[in-house]
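Final report, closing paragraph on structural work. Over the funding period we assembled a curated collection of sequence-structure pairs, and we close with a single example.
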Amino acid sequence: MKSIGIGRAHSKIILMGEHAVVYGFSAVALPLKTIEVVCEIRPAKEPLQENTTDPLITAIFAALAHLAITASKISYQISSSVPQRRGMGSSAAVAIAAIRSVFDYYEQPLDDPTLEMLVNQSEKIAHINPSGLDAKACLSDTALAFSRNTGFTRLELALKAYLVIADTGIHGQTSVAVDKVRRQGDQALPLLGELGQLADTFTVALRHNDLVTMGSAMTKAHAILDDLGVSSIEANHLVRVAIDAGALGAKMSGGGLGGCVIALTDTAEKAIQLTRRLEKKGALNTWIETL
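Its predicted structure, as stored:
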C-alpha cells in the first residue's frame, strides 16, 4: 500500500439532447478537462463505514469489493472545482476520482472497462437509471455523441469556437425534471424527438464547422426544454442575456430546474465579454471552454 492514494477526474457538460437521451434519442456531451476533482485516500485508525445513499462512499466500496478488501482502515478527502448539482457531472467525476484513488492506494492496476463498470454502479445511487453518458463523458478526452440504439461516437473538435458556461446559482433537480417529463407521457414524445433531431443537426454542423447552425440548434433546443417545463426562470434569463449579447446560440444544460446554461461564440474576445455580461446579470460563476 502507498501512504496516500490519489485519483483525478474531470467534469462534463451536455451540449444537446438532455432528457431526449433517456427515451433513446441522440445527445452530445463535452468533457471539461480543466474542471477537476481530486480524491485522496489515506490510512485511518478505524474502518470506513459504508453508506449506500452516498455515491462517493458507494464508489469507494465498489472499488474495495472489486479488490476483495474488507474492513479497510482508510479515510478520504475530496477537492473539487466541479459545482455540485449543476449538470456538470459532479457525481460521476467524484466516483471516478474515488475509484482511481482506491486502486492507487492499494497499488492495483485499473483498466478503463473496469473503471467504467464501477462508476456506473455508483451512478445508479445518484441517478437511479443513468444513461451512462455522464460517466463516459467524464472518462473521455473528446466530445461524444450518444444514443441508446447506436452507442457512443467520438467527436474530434477542431472548431474556431468557444463555449461559455454560466452557473445560474440554483441547484439542478434532475430526478424531479425527469419525472416531470415522464408524467407527460406520450404528449412529450414529439418534443423529445425534436430534441433528438436537433442533436443530430448539431452533430452534423459540428463536423462541418458550421457554427451558425450549431448555435441555432442550441437556441431551438432551449425553447423545447422550456416547453417541457424543465428550464427555470434563472436559466431563461441568462439565455436571453447571452442571445442579446451576440451569442450564436444558448440553452440550458443538464437535467434542468436550475444548473447551468451554455452559449456559443466564435471568438475568444466575445466569450470573455459574454462571461462579464452574464456575471453582471446574475450568473454565479462562468467558465470558457475552447472547442
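The mean pLDDT is 92. The chain is about 40% helix and 25% strand. We thank the funder for supporting this effort.
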